[in-house]
């Protein structure tokens, strides 16, 4: 694929990502798309003047991925204070915290590595709070 | 909900236009912004005709700044040559059409598309009818 086609493909990907991340927020959607388009049209991006076209395409693809996976908008609903509804969608990255629960290997001193926090060696018990 | 108000405002301002159209133009199109969210305001149909797709594609195009009147847009109309768009503009159109018809233009196809007709044909080939049991407002 030529560079121009790669750039346009990344552009389409970014537009699609904005509609996933900001589906019900027209103002944000519009602002994000305008920003993306403005930067696409620039020969040199003043925010990253040293980046090559290839690097800028990769950057845009990374932005798209970030928008899809790591942006979750919240919307306050009703009169209840501090209660927000989160727009978690199928692309949202949902960590299971497995790496925190897992016991780490031995350190260079032959001892067990701390599995987290300041207590050292202790296994962290994950207690889910429900309520 | 705000979109219902828009829909009302739209229907009042465009009574004649709606009457002429094959189906009411989605309310989202009346806003002066180029992109709207993916919410659809039309009812789902189990099949689409070429005329349907063309009419709806033209109403999508209407939400963009066009150098020609939308009445002159047909299957042969080319985005860059006839509508005076640049490559970013017509990719905006492609994504807006994707949102309108719930299809995704394959990269290889999208890079080669030049005319409205090519879009219409692609949409007809790749459109999956919405499940009847699903409320389109919820989708």
Automatic annotation (TrEMBL), chain A:
Keyword NADP among record annotations: no
Keyword Chaperone attributed: yes
Record localization: Mitochondrion matrix
Record's GO cellular component terms: mitochondrial matrix
GO MF terms, alphabetically ordered: protein folding chaperone
Gene Ontology annotations of biological process type: mitochondrial respiratory chain complex III assembly
Stored InterPro entries: Complex1_LYR_LYRM7, MZM1/LYRM7
Superkingdom of source: Eukaryota
Keywords assigned: Chaperone, Mitochondrion, Transit peptide
Family: Belongs to the complex I LYR family. MZM1 subfamily.
Subunit-structure text: Interacts with RIP1.
Role this protein plays: Assembly factor required for Rieske Fe-S protein RIP1 incorporation into the cytochrome b-c1 (CIII) complex. Functions as a chaperone, binding to this subunit within the mitochondrial matrix and stabilizing it prior to its translocation and insertion into the late CIII dimeric intermediate within the mitochondrial inner membrane. Modulates the mitochondrial matrix zinc pool.
Protein name: Mitochondrial zinc maintenance protein 1, mitochondrial
Species of the source: Ogataea polymorpha
UniProtKB/TrEMBL annotation, chain B:
SUPFAM superfamilies given in the database record: ACP-like (SSF47336)
Gene3D superfamilies registered for this protein in UniProt: ACP-like
Compartment(s) where it occurs, according to its Swiss-Prot or TrEMBL record: Mitochondrion
UniProt keyword annotations, A-Z: Electron transport, Fatty acid biosynthesis, Fatty acid metabolism, Lipid biosynthesis, Lipid metabolism, Mitochondrion, Phosphopantetheine, Phosphoprotein, Transit peptide, Transport
Protein name, as recorded: Acyl carrier protein
Its biological purpose: Carrier of the growing fatty acid chain in fatty acid biosynthesis.
Main subcellular localisation: mitochondrion
Assigned protein family: Belongs to the acyl carrier protein (ACP) family.
Ranges of residues in domain Carrier: 51-127
Phylogenetic lineage: Eukaryota, Fungi, Dikarya, Ascomycota, Saccharomycotina
Any GO CC annotation of this UniProt entry: mitochondrion
Pfam families for the chain: PP-binding
GO terms of molecular function: acyl binding; acyl carrier activity
Source taxon at top rank: Eukaryota
Matches recorded under InterPro entries: ACP, ACP-like_sf, PP-bd_ACP
